[in-house]
TrEMBL record, chain A:
Organism from which the protein derives: Pygocentrus nattereri
Protein's name in the database: WD repeat domain 73
GO biological-process terms attached to the record: cytoplasmic microtubule organization
Gene symbol of the encoding locus: WDR73
GO CC annotation, single: cytosol
UniProt lineage: Eukaryota, Metazoa, Chordata, Craniata, Vertebrata
Domain of life of the source: Eukaryota
UniProtKB/TrEMBL annotation, chain B:
UniProt entry keywords in alphabetical sequence: Hydrolase
MF-aspect GO terms: histone deacetylase activity; hydrolase activity
Native organism: Pygocentrus nattereri (Red-bellied piranha)
Domain Histone deacetylase: 5-261
Protein name: Histone deacetylase domain-containing protein
Domain of life the protein comes from: Eukaryota
């Protein structure tokens, strides 16, 4: 008996009630980046072959049709712009600033950042417009974040001691972190025009200000050895006050810590997630806060699902919190199970203002946009 | 499902038919249902004892109104088959619940109306009958295929999209699996490659035709791209091919999924409009 087809059919029938919207798309090659370039379009890029496509995709128009969904048949993602990158793309960021059609990418095992123009209506080509050569090659992915100033800039680093802010137009280094720390960078993000947060692979948080090189460090109290950590910042972009930000950290063994910058000595919430599989690689861990739902947090990268939690009720030391919603779509519609490696969700993002809409991508090349039904409030 | 009464309403409003052409079915009896479904399932289904897991697979939450509706719907398909044998052509404004298996429901199907109708006609007549089920719903008629897999007097033909539900396919007597995105022209020519020889070789005494509209490009679940015109030409082709050979045909509306129920009901009425045209040209 073909158990997996049966389970997939069961999930399909349940999904008709679980989701208000669910649209799927199959990329030729998987992506580990999804970056918003407008309220209706995202950028994705390949990470697995020598020549990788960067694509700007328009989300299915049906999603935006509101009450008139029955009249809008367009439920496909559409490729608006595309280009080729000569290296696998580890990180891709849409750059804030004068032109809003600029993205920067970093590659695996690479000593450069590449700058791209997404193009306008007159062309469907994503063109490389510049290269920033760096001193150091990153063994793993170099992480990047957009600056939040009018003049486009990018914050990047693969180790804490090489984190720099570079002005895109001139390639000039505007700021460099003043510390010797060799901790590997797991992620970085600006909170406002000057202040930024870096998360290291070992879970230590660094807080810096581009107006002075001093950097503050918040190590984890009881560090979990051999765990890799990633982080998600809850902010009111683009101008947040650091003190009002909450930071979540996710470890590769399924631990989630919630911390408040006003009191970093101990977490305000902590949970241990129930892991179905353990992965040797933790390349894809993503933890993010919902922009439009208070205290909602989502986690992916540990298996083929995306988990959504309401952290309002989290205390310290919570075991196996019950998620509000689990997206199993990638797991059940996995079209190509190659070489026996289990499917993993490579990344996910929330829609900037639609409360329950997310996008997620998986290692089989699938990309989904979904909006789940809030059963508690009975809203459909 | 609000679409059923709307199908009849739009046919009357558009004067495709008059009230005198409308027949009302009886509830399908326990005995009739029992020729296809197991006693245990029927008993649980009728008394509301199916469990939550079973209900989830069907897409429905049990209610006594749901049971009534399903029994009338099945009765309607049986009636359409009987009227077709008398008059040559009859169309139900419901029906096509082809995912129902003997002991469980699935995919919005709780009782298999086509199977119940076929079994009823096989057994109620003293003369041997052969029945061809032509299922052009975008989803495979898996329940019907399973029910008749060992029945030589019923031939199940399903043309559907391979990647649509159910992923776990059964074996119809003839399955034609289509790729995503197929459009009108290629769809019709694929159908034309199979239906004529099937009619000539199997020589049915009755055709039951599931005219599901979910191959339409606006359908929320189907992965094909037929237009209204494409559906009409499909239905016209099937009905003409069968009627020209003097074989009676009964139609059911099959599947269709859209949040705009009015638009959907109109789409479901395409087969009735095609039938009215074929009736005028070939029967009267």
């Amino acid at each position: 008996m073909d158990v997996s087809s049966d389970e997939a059919d069961d999930w399909f029938m349940e999904s008709l009630h679980m989701y208000k919207d669910l649209h799927v798309f199959q990329l030729e090659h998987p992506t580990k980046v999804i970056e918003w370039t407008s309220e209706k379009s995202v950028c994705v890029a390949g990470y697995s072959s020598p020549k990788n496509e960067i694509l700007e995709l328009l989300l299915p128009l049906k999603l935006y049709a509101g009450d008139k969904q029955g009249l809008c048949p367009e439920r496909d993602f559409k490729v608006q712009h595309g280009g080729f990158c000569d290296e696998p793309v580890e990180c891709l960021r849409h750059i804030f600033g004068k032109s809003n059609r600029c993205v920067v990418t970093s590659g695996h095992n690479s000593s450069k950042l590449q700058v791209w123009d997404l193009g306008e209506d007159d062309s469907d080509v994503i063109k490389r417009t510049g290269v920033i050569n760096l001193e150091r090659t990153s063994a793993e992915g170099r992480k990047i974040a957009s600056g939040l100033t009018e003049d486009p800039s990018v914050l990047h680093g693969c180790q804490i001691n090489d984190v720099q802010l570079i002005e895109l137009a001139s390639g000039k280094v505007l700021y460099a972190v003043g510390t010797d720390s060799l901790d590997a960078v797991s992620g970085l993000q600006f909170v406002n025009a000057n202040e930024f947060v870096i998360c290291a692979n070992n879970g230590t948080l660094y807080v810096g200000d581009t107006r002075h090189p001093r950097i503050e460090q918040y190590a984890l109290q009881a560090s979990v050895t051999r765990s890799r950590w990633s982080f998600g910042l809850k902010t009111n972009l683009p101008q947040s006050d650091l003190a009002s930000c909450t930071v979540s950290r996710l470890s590769s063994c399924g631990q989630v810590l919630l911390s408040d910058f006003r009191k970093m000595s101990s977490p305000v919430g902590e949970a241990q997630l129930n892991l179905q599989h353990s992965f040797p690689s933790s390349d894809f861990m993503t933890v993010t806060w919902a922009p439009a739902l208070d205290n909602f947090l989502s986690v992916s990268g540990l298996d083929g699902t995306v988990l959504v939690f309401d952290t309002t009720r989290w205390t310290t030391d919570l075991k196996n919190p019950e998620p509000i919603f689990v997206h199993r779509g990638h797991h059940f519609s996995c079209e190509a199970k190659t070489d026996g490696t289990p499917l993993v969700v490579t990344t996910h993002v929330w829609h900037p203002w639609r409360p329950r809409t997310l996008l997620s991508a998986a290692s089989d090349g699938s990309i989904h946009v979904w909006d789940w039904v809030d059963k508690e409030n009975n809203s459909l | 499902m609000g679409k059923f009464p709307k199908v009849l309403q739009c046919l009357l409003k558009d004067q495709v038919i008059t009230e005198t052409q409308v027949w009302v079915p009886l509830l399908a009896s326990d005995e009739m249902l029992g020729s296809v479904h197991t006693q245990e399932y029927l008993s649980n289904f009728i008394t509301g004892k199916t469990d939550e897991k079973e209900q989830r697979r069907t897409g429905f939450t049990w209610s006594s109104g749901l049971v009534q509706r399903c029994r009338y719907e099945t009765g309607g398909t049986v009636l359409a088959a009987q009227v077709a044998l008398q008059r040559g052509l009859a169309c139900s404004t419901a029906g096509g619940t082809h995912h129902a298996f003997p002991s469980y429901g699935s995919g919005f199907c709780l009782l298999n109306d086509l199977a119940v109708a076929a079994k009823h006609l096989l057994t109620e007549s003293r003369i041997k009958r052969r029945i061809l089920i032509v299922d052009l719903d975008v989803h495979q008629g898996d329940g019907t295929a399973f029910i008749f897999k060992d029945e030589p007097d019923v031939f199940t033909f399903s043309m559907h999209c391979g990647k649509n539900f159910p992923l776990r396919k059964q074996c119809s007597d003839l399955d034609v699996s289509l790729d995503d995105g197929m459009e009108d022209k290629e769809y019709l020519s694929t159908l034309q490659a199979h239906l004529p020889w099937l009619l000539d070789v199997f020589r049915p005494d009755l055709v039951l035709y599931d005219a599901g509209v979910d191959p339409h490009w606006e359908d929320e679940l189907g992965r094909l791209r037929l237009t209204d015109q494409g559906l009409f030409e499909r239905d016209q082709y099937v009905l003409k091919s069968v009627v020209k050979k003097g074989i009676p045909v009964a139609t059911v509306i099959g599947g269709g999924y859209s949040r705009d129920v009015d638009r959907l009901a109109l789409r479901h009425s395409i087969v009735h409009r095609a039938a009215a045209k074929v009736w005028k040209e070939y029967v009267t």
